[in-house]
Amino acid sequence: MSGQLTVRLEETVPGTGELNYAVYLRELSWLDPDIPLIIEHLDDADQYRRAAGYIRQVAASLDIPL
């Protein structure tokens, strides 16, 4: 988020921004196991591969099955 008065979120490839995916995935794991986690608004297939790889790596480090 920027330091301006209006809230502004900038989407980035997971692992390159400020969102703590360990906390996010841990909290998400308490919900229905079939709940989707969606990766969207990236520029190309390489960014989607990197994003999915990062999220899988974080989940594996927390023993959270995906």
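[next item in queue]
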Amino acid sequence: MKRFLLSLPPAFWGLIAVCVFAAFTQPQFLSLPFLMILLRQAAPLGIVALGQTFVVANRSLDLSVGATIAFVNLIVAHAMWNGYPPAFVIAVALCVGLVIGLVNGLLVTVLRASAVVVTLGTAAVITGIGFLYSGGAPGSSMAELVKWLGRGRIGVVPVSGLACLAFGILAWILLRRLTLGRYIFAAGDNPSAASYSGIPVNTTLLLSHLLSGLFAASGGVLLSGLVGVGSLNLGADYVLSSIAAVILGGAVFGGGAGSAVGTMLGTALLVMVLNLLTVFGVDQPGKLIVQGLVIAVAAIIYQQGRRG
């Protein structure tokens, strides 16, 4: 029992603490309508963080997710796609995410370059291409299907929340039920040992970056629908937030750990904490400070628990 409790991600205990605190200070925060609003806000970040989980568990990192989201937003909002079926435009946006993930994966595996440097460079290139593509003036010709994905509801449940659940199930299957997940954790824990054991370490890392790019583009589609217009800076804060959600979910930068369930719990905790801070009137600098402290404390406690 002790081992099981210590294995639970920090986000699990954090969510319990936040819910108890909210129940005594802001009871309306836990009402069903408000929770559905939080779910709609958390869905895009949750999908992006799930993609980040693959690369973090594989001892890598993807700092280009923010630029990917922004570029996807420019695609789905640009007037040049007027007249095309909305599903085709969404497919183009997802393919762009795959291409970005492929470029990141090839640079990291073939050139053996640092993932931090590679993905930062990729983000800069994507941002520049986005400015050229949009001419510095993002469009507002967004299809109703995209808006429905970001804002729509089925009953009281947001469509984006259902999409996030579907991506969470997919990520859980890939990480826990398929050989790819075992390869990711083995390569992330000890790349040399995994290579000697016959695991295709480079191919596994390449696939991790491909999945990260695809999930980032998918989250970008939902976030674009939620916002409803084009924006050159959309998703800029998702880089730090996605990494924070993964760390809160129990992953470590050394690789070999992490889970889809933990990442979704980490996303929920992060969104609830930030919204609670908003309710109490905390401004953006204060939110960043609290967010950093929560990540640091959670990582330290989880590491100590694993060592114990």
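[queue empty]
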